[in-house]
Write a structure and sequence with these properties.
alpha+beta; N-terminal domain of MutM-like DNA repair proteins; Helicase, Ruva Protein, domain 3; five-stranded antiparallel sheet; four-stranded antiparallel sheet; 11 strands; Endonuclease-VIII_DNA-bd
Length: about 300
């Protein structure tokens, strides 16, 4: 499932491919998609993308009007953007934006499994917390000011998937974060986080909010390449998720948690631990990771 880094890379991809490009006509939806129609048609408009956690917003701006439209996307299990010629339109292209040129090109939202969604005239979901990458101080304050909430009675690995507090974190990030910080996944979240309620120095404020940003942006956004699904760099970056020698167990929500060593006192009772295994076939990882964040840094993410 695409996580915060992938959605940010998707926004960079759109801006890189569509910068200076003029689009025209109506936005077209596939017949099979159950998502809403996008009632927008314009002889000439541009597209700019912005990401926030697990959402991407496309802003359509007419050249001769100040009336813009925002479309907010959630990628589900397999969503991503492609920019192709009309003749090379992807099979599972469910929302399409056509350029004003001959031959025309098409920006497509592609979603094989169709769990993704879009909302015309949409806004960021109110039940999602600040972005883990680009709203760091607000994100940190949101977590630490709510440690008394019942949600933090749960294991840290499960709370990390709660988008109300950790907007952008998903299954592979939680495994990598906890492994690199040497934190057992099934320890009470409040116990793990309450020690962070200290005042941040100016230097800490400057550095800690940029860990994931450094992983992604300073690497040039090379990981998001829907034209060439190469997972080599990503697999090299992984230290825990789907890695040889790691254990796995289903958490209380049925999601697979990868870890090493003791799972912690709150591990599900009666749930058999998967023994360390040989490295998974690359195709298996590709099925679970639709997009490719190209990380090469070993700097851990610290809430």
């Amino acid at each position: 499932m695409p996580e915060g880094p992938e959605l940010h890379l998707a926004s960079l991809f759109v801006n890189r491919m569509c910068g200076g490009v003029v689009f025209t006509g109506p936005v077209q939806k596939s017949e099979v998609s159950k998502n809403p129609e996008v009632s927008f048609s314009c002889p000439a408009y541009t597209i700019i993308a912005t990401s926030r956690g697990k959402e991407v917003r496309l802003t359509l701006t007419p050249q001769k009007s100040d009336s813009t439209m925002d479309i907010v996307f959630r990628f589900g299990m397999s969503g991503f953007f492609r920019f192709t010629t009309e003749a090379e339109l992807p099979k599972h292209s469910h929302l399409r934006f056509y350029t004003n040129e001959k031959p025309c090109r098409v920006l497509s939202f592609v979603d094989t499994r169709r769990f993704g969604s879009w909302q015309p005239n949409g806004t960021w979901q109110l039940n999602r917390g600040p972005c883990i990458m680009f709203e760091y101080l607000s994100y940190r304050e949101n977590v630490l000011s709510h440690l008394s909430d019942r949600a933090f009675d749960r294991p840290i690995c499960e709370v990390l998937l709660n988008q109300k507090y950790f907007n952008g974190i998903g299954n592979y990030l939680r495994a990598e974060i906890l492994f690199r910080l040497n934190i057992p996944p099934f320890v009470k979240a409040r116990t793990v986080l309450e020690g962070l309620q200290t005042h941040l120095s100016d230097e800490d404020r400057k550095e800690q909010g940029y860990v994931l940003f450094i992983c992604i942006v300073l690497l040039g956004g090379k990981g998001y390449d829907p034209e060439k699904m190469d997972y080599t760099d990503f697999k090299s970056w992984l230290q825990c998720y789907c890695v040889e020698g790691m254990k796995s167990v289903r958490d209380h929500n049925g999601r697979t948690m990868w870890f090493k060593g003791d799972p912690g006192p709150m591990a599900p009772k009666g749930e058999a631990l998967a023994e360390p295994k040989t490295e998974e076939n690359p195709s298996t990882i590709q099925q679970s990771l639709t997009l490719t964040p190209s990380y090469t840094t070993n700097v851990p993410f610290v809430p």
